[in-house]
User: Fold these one by one.
Assistant:
Number 1:
Amino acid sequence: MQTHFIVYAILALLLSLTVAYLQYYFRLKNKIKPTPILFVLKSLSLFLLLLLLINLKINETETTDIKPTLSLLVDNSNSISFFKESNNLQAFINELENNNELKTKFYFKKFSFGNSLKVIDTLSFKDTQTNISNAIIGINELQKNKISPIILLTDGNQTIGQDYEFVSSKQPIYPVVFGDTTKYTDAKIAQLNVNKYSYIKNKFPVEIILNFEGNESVSTQLNIFSEGKSVFRKNVDFSGTKKSATVIANLTSNKEGLHFYTASISKIVNEKNIRNNTKSFSVEVIDEQTKVLVITSVLHPDLGALKKSIESNKQRSVEIYNVDDFKGQLNDYQLTILYQPNNKFDKIIAQINQENSNCFFISGVNTDWNFINEKQLGFRKNTINQTENYSAIFNDRFLTFLQEDIGFDNYPPLKDKFGEINISREHQTLIFQNINGVRTQQPLLSTLEVNNQKSAILLGEGIWKWRAASFLNTNSFEDFDNFLGNLIQYLASNKKRDRLEVNTESLYPANSTINISAFYTDKNYQFDARAFLEISITNSETKEVLKIPFSLVNNSYQTEIENLPSGDYSYQVSVSGQNINKYGRFKITDYQIEEQFTNANIEKLQKLADKTGGKLFYKNKSDELTKELLENETFYTVQKSSIKEQNLIDWKWILGLIIILFTSEWFIRKYYGKI
């Protein structure tokens, strides 16, 4: 209680006593017998009434006991059912939950992981991937600043994500091993590397890495099949000292189109798991390569980033020339990129305009805008002799081609000369400018298309930072490379734009969810959200047809397909009421990554337990785990005190008491005829 409230309370008491004294004792000659009672009633009622008017505040201390949280992290992937551990794992969870001593000491929180981390609803053991590292990081984030040991119920076999052995965890982790712990002799295809594209009549390499577990000497045969015929065969030997082998097969591209292949090794003696002996892959054979020319006036890290990103698609090649050194012909290339052009680009720009060639214009601090403005390229920029940093704002209404937001708003800013850009031709803006936190409608990246000539402008240097930021955010350059690939594909194509475009993969693993997206425009090439799109999927063997409608999601049509059996499929995407169709095919393989393991990964789980201060247990040692948790004194209950401030006016019983006191005083005075 604060000091000034105490002073007010004392003054209120003195005032109450004074008023009662003046009323019942001061110069009062005829005192009645209950005068002292009336004095007390008056003093007390007035005092309480004044306290309510003062609104006295009282601090109350509340104490709360916070028990440590026991986080159960349960592997919900298909590998648990593959090892036939589903019932054992569920029984283990029930045994922990039904332990009264554990329930007294801990709060229980249950989570499942596989493709992603989730709060447990039901366990299906059908997730097609296992990401242990993501689950550990997620639990540490959820239980930050808490005492929360983690019980990890898993076989320890991870298929995606960073290596969980090196993940930092502030909480101790107690792995419980499920799965076969016996070591079996096994040969498997550990990895297969191949380019997605090849050129007709060319050879393309296929790198196959084989691993062996065992101590005896064995021989196996590697075969690659296409359309049921063997196109490559090689014998491979393993022993206790030779645990791996790398085989490179050079196959020939004889026919244009999409081709499926299967690599397989024969079963060795006493091999238990043969599901990891086979792997499928696909190669699209094309008849030409997209050649991209980059002409520059300066040396800059952007040039290397552009080359690496564009050539991440083996269907494309990039040649970089200084503007003073280029002596070739533009018509030898499908696309020309002009990097920070100046007056030395005069003949090149004239040739682009004359031949109606597609181009990609990238400006920067060394761009000569006075020269560019004279060339009447459909855009001009009135600049001053000052540079500015331009951050990105993604435009989800961009319609030229299908592009998702890959986090452009969080990418580092690009640098260019300061000024207002004016585009006089028909254009679409993919990214707008953000200047020092001010969102503008000025373009940062736009596409232009006039008379079948396609062009794009990027108003800023430093795109190499975008590629680096993409890697830091996702541990991969894939998002950025796909974005730039979409732009290059649009600019390098001279074909008339299709009103219907479909995005799908050519190869899917078994039991995976198949995501297919489509982009449909009207006759003016504006996105049409009124259409009804449907996909018809035909199994090539059974001829069974499945028809599924698309759903409208933002500026695209999307659908998800699940539970398709393994096999070859063809599809047709059609637009209702229009004679517009797209055709393609894909294959669902028998390959299931969760069934590639022969036993539980005890070694990694042991290292994880040692690193985080936990202990490793086996599924039949639940009593030992319970004892460890109960006896560990670092898992203690925290007593938390909080001060709660209450207003006296909120205590309604005081108001009731005041009414009773005033009423009693009135009745006594009435009884003795003092009213």
Number 2:
Amino acid sequence: MKHLLLLLLPLFMACSDQNNIVKEVASPNLNNKIVFELNDAGQLFYSISSNNLEFLQPSALGFELKNKSLKNNFKMLSSEVKTNNSTWETVWGQRKTVKDYNNQLTLHLQQKETNILIDIIAKSFDDGIAFRYVFPKQNNLSDFVIIDELTEFNFKEDYKTWWNFADYDNYEKVYYNSPISQVGDSIKFKRRPEKEERPNMANTPTTIEVNDNLVVSIHEADLTDYAGMNLLNTLNGFKFKAHLTPWLNGDLVRASTPFQSPWRTIQIGKNPGDLVESDIIMNLNPECAYEDTSFIETYKYIGIWWELHIGKTAWAEKTQFGKPITKPHGANTKNAKYHIDFAAKHGIPDVLIEGWDKGWDNMEGSWTGYNIFDWKTSTDDFDIKEVTDYGKKKGVRMMMYHETISDIDHYEPAMDSLYKMCKDLGIKTVKVGYTGDVNYDSKKKTYKQHHHGQYMVRHYKKMVQTAAKYGLLIVNHEPIKFTGEQRTYPNLMAREGARGQEYNAWSEGNSPEHGVVLPFTRLLGGPMDYTPGIFKMDVPDRNWSPLDFRVKSTICKQLAYYLTMYSPIQMAADLPENYEGNAAFQFIKDVPTNWSESKVINGKIGDYYTVVRKERNADNWYLGSITDENPRKFKVDLSFLKKNKTYIATIYSDAKNAHWLTNPEVFTISKREVTSKDVLEIILAAGGGQAIEFKVVE
């Protein structure tokens, strides 16, 4: 009855009578609900249920400020309830039209002894629940510093959880699954502590399987002037607590009223695929900040990149990380033109060129340094004007690469001039990397900030905004995590923020399971520059490591990644010579990068995942299906195709004897006519995949 009364409320209703203050809000379909209560000490708690299962039990809220505690002694002043129901169109994305339908509750609170005001805004969607803190403009609080956020996520039971270790500077970690009680257990998971890696803590998104019919994921949305949130395993029951990445002096967030936190989000679905299809993270971000988005486009690119990672060529000219180089410098004019010729031949608009500028020879240790790049001066064997002019004649652009080595002191003041230089050269996209320590001081061997703290959150935002002034797109490596801000700043095309393809070139590599975990964890925040498309799975041995380097995938799984690893800018990452003469390359050339619809066919975290996507402004569909180390077989109903239309299905399948370890590069290509009434059998090899183009017959 309470749920029905809530929906019968007017679109906007304010309650100030203590007996009438609304303390809960349910989703439009009534399935999801958040409830707020004050305890006897005046501390605010919340709980969340789905289909009457309270999987999040009363969980604390509040803050500790420098010289003030905003934990206890609160009273509720009033509440407001309204319904938001609208649709909006994406500039690019997994779907063209997004529905934003939720019921919203605002609670106005006041601390009794200080009279400090805080609002809690909660939104209940059919696909999840979110809440944020708002500090209104007020006389009793102006400038303040947060030294602890008290937000908890107190789960009812020890549910199965998909997570990776938190780190103030790096998200590129292996994913594990364990009960909540074991999240962050560095002893159990035999972790060798890394700099700033935190025991008993996980990154977000962290995804929790409550039962066979309920899966949730904790993350945040609209992170633009705050510290990134990690999840601290409190080791008290099955409870996580927000743990913010600090400034180096211990401050967490520096703020002035009016001010608001990011949204704390709990995506909710009946199955893992529901999380992938959810738009709650984007819906919680402001609408597009740009009046004109005509400069934004989606596409594929190749690059002088994989050859650097597998050790064929080098980023530097003479010395790299303080050691002499015996291999050739990759980013030379001749090699750039070779890549441009290949791109032009195959209709690929961009070529990424890493290592084109001076400074690489001066790096200290591994990817560190200070004031060694100006990001303008070419190496002696690379002529940027000659290369970009050559590209213009061929209809191919250079994708700029700025490796900042996190030298923000020098990169941020130079961004305007650097981005103008890119625009003048006809460059469309800048890939910006942030390896190393932020503002590293080589003399003192110290660094000044963390990648995931408020200082860098502000910088990443400024970088994207500055790029937009010059009509540029951004691909960001070593980033802050995606929290849906691609809605507001759609020139932010992709971020890394997880172990990508490069790890297969010089480490133990990504397991066959890894690619089947990312769509249900990291990619829930936003698109990833995973760099798929490797066709030659064996990687050359290195004299500095006994490891057998290899890509633990079949070719068809690499093709399927163009659907399962969503990004509006996708790389064909392998060497051009590994594509020449290989029929599978046709799929990479044909697969679009912008979609009007996306549907998850099936999915089990860490096991398998199948998705279909409809090309934007066309009736063609594409399917990608991947598995872990186990072979799989299942049927796919083609009812997603347009009725009364015939399609030619071009099917890229693992060969019968394919296997990620013993025979990864064999595949078959077949064609058949299909309609929406047909059912296809999908057969995946161990560590394999399948990719299908459904092209409508006009």
Number 3:
Amino acid sequence: MYILGISAFYHDSAATLIKDGEIIAAAQEERFTRIKQDASFPKNAIAFCLDNCNINLDDIEKIVFYDDPKLKFKRILTTYVDFFPKSILFIFKSLPIWLTKKLYWKQNLINDFKINFKINIDESKILNTTHHRSHAASAFFASPYEDSAVLVLDGVGEFETTTLWHGKKNKLTQIKNLKFPHSIGLLYSAITYYTGFKVNSGEYKVMGLAPYGEPKYVETIKNSLITINENGTFKLDMSYFDFATGSKMTNDKFHKLFGQEPREEETEIGQFEMDMARSIQDVAEEVMLKLSNYIKEETKSDNLCLAGGVALNCVGNGKILKANIFKHIWIQPAAGDAGGSLGAALNYYFDILENKRIVDNKNDSMKGSYLGPEFSEQDIESYLNSIDADFIKYDNINELIEVVSTALSEEKIIGWHQGKMEFGPRSLGGRSILGDPRSQEMQKTMNLKIKYRESFRPFAPSVLREKVSDYFELDVDSPYMLLVAPINKSMIIKMSDNEEKLFGIEKLNIKRSTIPAVTHVDYSARVQTVHSETNPKYHMLLESFYKKTGCPVLVNTSFNVRGEPIVCTPEDSYRCFMRTEMDMLVINNYVMLKNKQPNYQDKGNWQEEFKLD
């Protein structure tokens, strides 16, 4: 039985295909269209899922949408009334599109399938679930656990902003919910907006900025903006916010509280923004920890699953792990709305149809999150020849690994395009840019010359699973780069007296550990453990680098530049490679050096530079 899950029409559209409960394929639409957080009907993602299994839409048993638009419309009507007359502009702006299009979501999907796939889908074939149930299902039903507490935190679904669940076998039961406008996700987004970053994409920048600041405004936030109860439930004072009426995130009362207007995008980031980032991060962590304690008491489960956009806050996740509230925690790698497509499909198969789940309490069903497109040798070579690329193909994988690990040990920056594309926002060794973590200059070089992004932003380490505890205060699997942990004290380089006096962004260029390129200013790192079972080639590369250098860690950042989606195809990877100052591109077994490509002057025998002994 094939089930197709779809998320669309808000942001980060995606499609997922499952077969008899097994996750077969999943991808975000943005990767195909090259439009970041593309919200359109995910025609390309759907086509990929079908092609991947060599099936067509007639073979699909059910199509499940991740959201309930009619219930969402009820929430919007409630907002009109609750915030009248402030909501008048919001009414004029939003009501027409709801009355003419969004309410008729099922017919819209039928029309989209007809236009894009030349097929008439029967209305009975299309179902939907609710937003937070989709998130909860994506976390629990893909997890290794038969029994688990499930915590979902995001901006807002239909009405719900925070939900607590208990998953048992093939059933999810909701324990508690918080409703709009009271949302920790929207509070975090409000600070994101106020500090000059884009809502729905800049929250991770705030998280990365937080360690440069001091928690100066925690009490102001808690005394004025949010009341947090002992069990983690909370309430916002909406007199400080305008997001409910669809105009701005914050208002004049908010700005007067903190003494200044919002920072304009692309202007200088000051200590005030750093302190605001640190303060909201601390508040978010407090909510996450208190809710975790509460759901532990309610479920008595040893396990916790997390999803929703706030579950991408890997610093908060790391604090939950460190608190030892649960024996095990598992975070859905596609925790945002894209993962709703997965949850919608899994919820139908397990909860609605009551099919049996088979779990072992150790291995999840995400297949490392390598669920996207992959390309054959013929595809790759045909493209490279069509653009006259200068490349060499290594048929022997050991030779390829030797060449790439040697280049990395010489502080070359590598574009690494291998196998299936990852599903979710993290690059996990399928579409990654790699570097040497021992290099003090690597973070600055990658940020400014490769990624073209803010210099304060940290990079994540990929580490051999069997070596993770040698470098980090962590000894659990973290395959999806969703846990932050401290660097081991033995790796830390003590700061001088003068360095200790530095403040904020001045801390950026200090060498803080033996792996400075992945050590954040607070001596932490967002860790990805690499496993031979899910990514043997990447594991081999790390092993080879370790043998050469004594370091089982690599810098791993997403294969894209600022403002663009992660690459998908060989063409995407080559174009990104040529636009940046990466030194080498490796697409499966094909290797290219930057300065030997067409339009570059140096046409020497580049194979000699990396010839094998």
Number 4:
Amino acid sequence: MSSFPPVAPERPVQTEPATAAHSVLDTALAELAEGEQRWSLVTMTGRRTLLDRIRALTGEYAREWVEVAARIKGLDAASPLVGEEWLSGPYVLAAALGALSRTLESLEHGRSPLDGATFGAAGNRVTVEVLPTGLYDELLLSGFSAQVWLRRGVSPAAAKATAGLAQLDPGRTHGIGAVLGAGNITSIAPLDTVYELIAHNRVVALKLNPVTDPLRPVFEKIFAPLIELGAVRILTGGAEVGGRLVTHERIAHVHMTGSANTHDAIVWGTGADATRRKAAGEPLLDKPITSELGGVSPTIVVPGEWSSADLAFQAEHIATQRLHNGGYNCVASQAVIVSAEWAQKDAFLAALAEALDRAPRRHAYYPGSDDRMATARSAYPDARRLGAQGERLLVTGLDPAAAEPLFSSEYFAPVLGVIELPGTGAAFTRAAADTANERLTGTLGVNIVAHPDAIAALGADFDAMIERLRYGTVAINAWTGVGYLTPTATWGAYPGHTLDDVQSGIGVVHNAWLIDEVERTVVRGPFRPAPRSILHREWALTPTPPWFVTNRTAATTGRRLTAFAATPRWTRLPAIFASALRG
């Protein structure tokens, strides 16, 4: 989630003054209309060549991208936290471009992108294994896996037949798509642009969030081949420009990343008229819109017998889920659900408080953060203030049956609450899933932390909890952010939201195999890092992940992973492993 500024109030487009910004916008859209015709004529080979070229340019300008992002976020250039900008910036874009290029290669040769995929089952749903996809994944993400769950009734044969989406008929384009970029994770806007172009065969007018406007020169260098073709235009400006863009007659579709409030301002307008429109089911926006809107993401901690090392590691894990990118993430954990009867509950909460307190200090770069923190402090005056200057809040004593503000307001700031529920075993997992589903706003992502022995003891009840959770990404002993970093995984809310109850959004992105009719992605990781994982027979070689806020070599590892994603070579692996093992 990011707080994209609300659109301007409703007004007839044709009566607006012909400002310079409007002229730039109108010219860009006219050029895209011409570019759409050129894009429709580009062969599958040509499209793959374009993606490969953009991937190479991503590697070429990756350092500049990261330097600009670090300045936006107030990071010291020497800080390991710069690794976040490598991984969630150029790394994931380069990886996605490589995966999409391979998808187009399959289609070019008359094959489904899912030919050779491993299908499985989860209850009455078919699953597709999307991680690992090859030996590189098995080495670099040892112990991690991910499956895309298809919607009920979709067979492997049907999935194979429809994989490819709009690229199954590449000559048929679908107009101009407006993409409203996020202001927090810097790869969101580029990734959404590529997905709109490939998955939906629409040329793209990308409107950057003002927070990321300084990245426009970098993005224009990376997307130069598509800009020259007339298939992409990158725009900047405030709410007025965004409002004019989404209502422009040339725009066929809108995709946004932001808040539900911003979504509703775009779809219904603002003020009393918006209330009337929403009640009457009369949207102001006269075109389709998809969205990714965040929410209150939970982490469910399944009770078990943990060692002191397990307690410390998982405390850092959950602290990372909250504090990565300073807490300004759409899937930042905001509510930790624990068993009140867990014998190690107090020890775990003490370790969690210590991890939150000791995590590196961050600049509060995102607009409105101070106000949102003040709101949280006002709602919870007894919350523990952690961090060097008390800039983080740990809220305990929450009533799971009450209308707690923390359950419905995405603070988008370093605020973490703890919900205690009765029960252990299957009784707890059912109650935890129901609390997450029914009490917390949003369906973007949920994390589950569980000892392997507890998973084994629960057996079918653990699988039932996963199936019961209505979330677009479910991460088991991993952060849902791993799903974001996996190009072949889907990213978006659980299906079923509507314009008048949008919650975490409508539709999915990423999805490099272009799979249709998806329900969710389920990510799994090791409970322990290497070498402890190996000593406990988890057979995972991954040390402390580079996205942990406590990882000491995250910047070096992220830079080396980005170079590998842009140009994969076996010779790059030893340096990656050497840096990762020192993290």
